Amino acid sequence: MRKLTVTGITRMAAVLATAASMLTMGLAMAPVASADTASTIQSIVQGQVGAQAHGRLSVASAATIKSTNRGPRNDPQGTVTQAQAKAIASASAASISSNAIESRAEYWVSQNIPYNQSAYSDANSAPIGPYRQDCSGFISMAWGLSSSLDTQTLPEVSQQLPSYSDLQLGDILDYNSTIDPVNGSHVVMFVSWANPQHTEYTEMEEAGGIGAVERTIQFPYDSPMDGSGTWVPYRYNNVVRATSPSVTALAGGGYVEAFQNPQGYLCNRLQSGTYACTDLQMMAGTSPSVTALTGGGYVEAFQNPQGYLCNRLQSGTYACTDLQMMAGTSPSIAGTTGGGYIEAFQANTGTLWNRNDVGTAADTSLGMDQSSSPSVTALTGGGYTEAFQNPQHDLCNRLQSGTYACTSLGMMAGTSPSIAGTTGGGYIEAFQANTGTLWNRNDLGTAADTSLGMDQSSSPSVTALTGGGYTEAFQNPQHDLCNRLQSGTYACTSLGMMAGTSPSIAGTTGGGYIEAFQANTGTLWNRNDLGTAADTGLGMM
């Protein structure tokens, strides 16, 4: 069996292979309702933060930085016009995952590529590049652009984020000075938040005096700027997330998995090992959902490249609806007690929608975090319940009757909750709090912090067990697959996951469970409750 835990050079080789593949394809404290208050953001932007907090460095040491005069940080402004930036964007139309962005940036950091506005490097960039060895050249390289943009034109190939809370791996913070555009502007790449208050974060950058580094610093930057501008968050237009599989136990025994392959097609795999990839294309970066039907067989839900909600039965019959989804989000589907199914999704209007097997669809008019996906489960006593994240990043629930409520439990922006009906007729939900830890909440409203850390871009999965209780699967900050039982017993395996992806778990007819995940090798893996794990050898986007 191929070893999954990769460190040092082995890890670097793995992530670089992923990057090349993508480019070739073209707190112990309770979570609060809002991670950042307006006053906190304002004070941070105005520079009212404390002393610099030096974090870890990939090559240079903190002592070196403290003793080094950094000099200018940005690149020559005005060298790239808006028209040229749009042309570069057009030539760089291939999608790239946030993991590939990170791996490309990590290579420059591992080599500590020196800062030089007049020099260019093709390290880890062929056949594209070379890139200018300054802050925006570093971002252009990481994003896989056809050539180097500058701090003023990077927004031409990206979209501004609604808030700092929406920052995810591969996004940028861009500062443009109106007083001294040449020496007063700078841009850094966001990696992850370093504390629940969002006052510190890990970033990668190319800067004068220190070169290409990865550091944990105070937000938004550890050096004062000239005050003529603000740090603006952006996300590259062509970034796609690495995808996650879905698994469900079948009524007659065994299980089936659904996933998106590297070519963008919907694929299925049975427990027997039989698999097939359909000719149905999916929107890049989205994940399918699969559920067993009580009468036998299964049905899948997915978003196609045109952004429409689609379904496919085990027989191969499929249909795409005229319901458009929020680009980049994924639907959830659950078999109902009557033999049909219910699906939940975020529409392109930013609200939660439902649709059943009869084709009846309805807008709940409930707003969602635009980067998250809902979860739906059938209840043993009939009906269904949904869980979702609202625009204020709170955990919300909605019953089939239309009754809904948003809790005061803050979620990590961009992540999605998981919900499962329990044997007693209630439900259990799992989610990543804005503190970065795994939380649970049941239908009685009882919520608890497990204090188990999670990869900040991933979401947990929860399933009820036929013998009672439930089990959760999640990715920890070290990118290992972990499990937790209702009793509180938990364990993290040595099976490395693809950063930013989420596992799927399903209770089996024998009282155990099966989980599916994308390994850090880019292939689909399985693991059961006995601890037996296997690489299917099937590649995933």
Describe this structure in words.
By secondary structure, this protein is mostly beta strands. It has two domains: 10-236, no CATH class; 241-531, Methylamine Dehydrogenase, Chain H. Helices cover 12% and strands 39% of the residues. The chain is globular and about 65 Å long. The protein is built from seven helices and 38 strands.
Write the layout of secondary structure elements.
Layout: H1 8-24, H2 38-45, H3 62-66, H4 82-91, E1 96-97, H5 98-111, E2 116-121, E3 131-133, H6 135-143, E4 158-160, E5 172-175, H7 181-184, E6 186-193, E7 200-207, E8 211-218, E9 231-236, E10 239-240, E11 246-249, E12 255-260, E13 265-270, E14 275-281, E15 289-292, E16 298-303, E17 308-313, E18 318-324, E19 332-335, E20 341-346, E21 351-356, E22 361-367, E23 375-378, E24 384-389, E25 394-399, E26 404-410, E27 418-421, E28 427-432, E29 437-442, E30 447-453, E31 461-464, E32 470-475, E33 480-485, E34 490-496, E35 504-507, E36 513-518, E37 523-528, E38 533-539
Parallel strand pairs: 1-10
Antiparallel strand pairs: 2-3, 4-9, 5-6, 5-9, 6-7, 7-8, 11-12, 12-13, 13-14, 15-16, 16-17, 17-18, 19-20, 20-21, 21-22, 23-24, 24-25, 25-26, 27-28, 28-29, 29-30, 31-32, 32-33, 33-34, 35-36, 36-37, 37-38
